[in-house]
Design goal:
This protein is mainly β. The chain is 0% helix and 55% strand. A hairpin with a 2-residue loop joins β7 and β8. The protein is elongated, with a radius of gyration of 22 Å.
Amino acid sequence: MASTSDFKNGLCIEFNRDLYTIVEFQHVKPGKGPAFVRTKLRNLKTGKVIPNTFTAGVKINIQRVERRTYQYLYNEGDTYHFMNAETYEQTFIEKSLIPAPDLLKEGQTVEILTHAETETYLSCDMPAYVELEVTYTEPGEKGNTATNTFKDATLETGGVVKVPLFINTGERIKVDTRTHEYSERVK
């Protein structure tokens, strides 16, 4: 058991029977009344950020979470198979824990957040940008870079993103995994 004096950004705690990480906190000591700690907590399962106020000195349960590096192997329906980069053990993760499953390429490295006590998987963090090849898109128009219009492009992983008109089939592009948007052409 710890208290509010142990708060720090990134600390994982158990709150309302769920796991939260502290995004930010502020210790407040008003002139009248007891001191308190104002926090913003992020739910590790849903990603939702909530504000909460703790009375100073309140006891909290600190939970241990670990970030482990895994390599993506393949998927069978909604089950995705990963291999631990250190122990070479295979792990299965549900599609709902992966933020952009259609941008996962075989052999790609990801970080999986694991609750250390129960060995349950909380989330899968992909790299911010991935480089993928365009397998199909409508023919591009040379020199058409001035307008801000986009067309659909199918990637080697099966995902579809909007790309500028000058991108052609066979080119490699960089895609933002957080927003699912085209970033730049890779040469």
